[in-house]
Amino acid sequence: MHPTSPVRVRAALAGAVVGATLLTLGAPAPGAQAAPPTSYAVTGVDTSHHNHGNKSDTAIDWKRVAGSHRFAFLKATQGVSVKDGWFARDYAAASRTSLLRAPYHFFDPRSTGDGAAQARHFVTTVRAAGYKGGAPGELPPVLDVEKLPVKGGKEVCPKALRADQIRAFLNETKRAFGVTPIVYTRASFVHDCMNGKGQVFAGHPLWLARYGSGAKEPQQVPGAGRAWTFWQYTDRARVAGIDGPADRNVFRGSAAELKALGTRAG
Question: What is the rounded distance in angstroms from the CA atom of residue 25 to the CA atom of residue 226?
Answer without folding.
Answer: 8
